[in-house]
DNA sequence: TTCGTATGAATGAACG
DNA sequence: CGTTCATTCATACGAA
């Protein structure tokens, strides 16, 4: 995704250039309303329409965008969840170990679930191939798209709804497209 | 610097062994190619076969699996749509509320419009035409969610569609909620 | 200044 | 497909 998104936060007419406020921060009234919705009303899952509405109302208390409201709810939910999860394994023996609130540096014992292909029918291999000994650096003299004479179209389940009916007819154009991005600078 | 470039991507030689980091992160070349396909080529709906092909090609730029490509396209499509959804919606009353969207000042948003899905189409005047079975005109008073103070602490998921789709209801109650925090004093 | 924490923002992954 | 979850990056701010 574009990663230049979080820079200019659209001042609605009042601009201060020097990187003073790059990042939105809720004004006290905004924060009060948001918290009121979340905690008092238990309003935690606003729909996009409701996000707009909230945002619209909050605009009278300061500059704000839809995505700010969106992220605010997302973050609050996520962090509440996270805290609960970390409280669960507090040693019941004795000493309180209040290590929550840290930025994930504390090694928690959350089991990593590499559930693969659970629902997404692309049924790939699922094998985590370790990186090769040396990293394949992006070389300028990248050879043309290597002939995939192998049967790469073999183990695909094709259960995706995207099945347009054809079975690889557009391979040529895709190949060309991929090749056209060998070393263009657009990152 | 107009880009903060989420570091974490591809430590340049040795990806972490299994266990430390599970989440795939596109390397810059991979990102470049993917974005090129999506934006420049307008390639948004890869078939499973094409996903494999793309993935195979991208493997020379770092570890990657089919599902990563799959998710990448899914997420980009979803978020672009979500953005459009949040930034439209001028109140039907006719307020002079404009410049909702804003992040596009210096953004390299070269999103080439092309065949959307099969759900909504845009008229020449910018109006949105539902292409499904029926219309739904008035979006004024629709008691969507019954939250007025107390019994809301259940598990309200407020999934916008109540059957016929189209959220946008709940204006009344939300407004009330917003108004109720006009001048209360709380933390 | 440096460090730690709180939090906005981004995005990969997954659910229904 | 739209929405939600999980994890991480980035940054503002206060304490040491």
TrEMBL record, chains A, B:
Q: Which UniProt keywords apply?
A: Developmental protein, DNA-binding, Homeobox, Nucleus, Transcription, Transcription regulation
Give the UniProt record's GO annotations in the biological process aspect.
plant organ development
This entry carries the following GO cellular component terms, namely:
nucleus
Biased amino acid composition, Polar residues = 1-24
Q: Which GO terms describe its molecular function?
A: DNA binding; DNA-binding transcription factor activity
A Pfam family that the UniProt record links to this protein = Homeodomain
Keyword Iron among UniProt keywords: no
In this chain, the stretch annotated as Disordered covers 1-27
Major localization class: nucleus
List locations, semicolon-separated. Nucleus
Entry-linked PANTHER family: WUSCHEL-RELATED HOMEOBOX 1 (PTHR45940:SF2), WUSCHEL-RELATED HOMEOBOX 1-RELATED (PTHR45940)
Per the record, the similarity remark reads: Belongs to the WUS homeobox family.
The protein here is known as Putative transcription factor Homobox-WOX family
Q: Could you tell me which species this protein originates from?
A: Rosa chinensis (China rose)
Its organism's taxonomic lineage begins at: Eukaryota, Viridiplantae, Streptophyta, Embryophyta, Tracheophyta
């Amino acid at each position: 995704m574009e990663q230049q998104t979080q820079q200019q936060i659209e001042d609605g007419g009042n601009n201060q250039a020097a990187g003073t406020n790059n990042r939105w921060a809720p004004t006290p009234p905004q924060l009060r309303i948001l918290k009121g919705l979340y905690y008092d009303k238990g309003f935690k899952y606003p729909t996009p329409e409701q996000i707009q509405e909230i945002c619209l109302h909050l605009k009278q208390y300061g500059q704000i965008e839809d995505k700010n409201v969106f992220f605010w709810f997302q973050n609050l939910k996520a962090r509440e969840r996270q805290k609960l999860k970390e409280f669960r394994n507090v040693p019941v023996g004795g000493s309180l170990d209040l290590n929550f609130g840290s930025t994930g540096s504390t090694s928690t014992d959350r089991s990593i679930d590499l559930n693969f292909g659970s629902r997404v029918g692309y049924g790939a291999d699922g094998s985590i191939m370790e990186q090769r000994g040396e990293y394949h650096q992006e070389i300028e003299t990248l050879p043309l798209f290597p002939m995939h004479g192998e049967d790469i179209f073999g183990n695909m389940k094709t259960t995706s709804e995207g099945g347009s009916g054809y079975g690889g007819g557009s391979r040529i154009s895709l190949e060309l497209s991929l090749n056209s991005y060998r070393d263009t600078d657009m990152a």
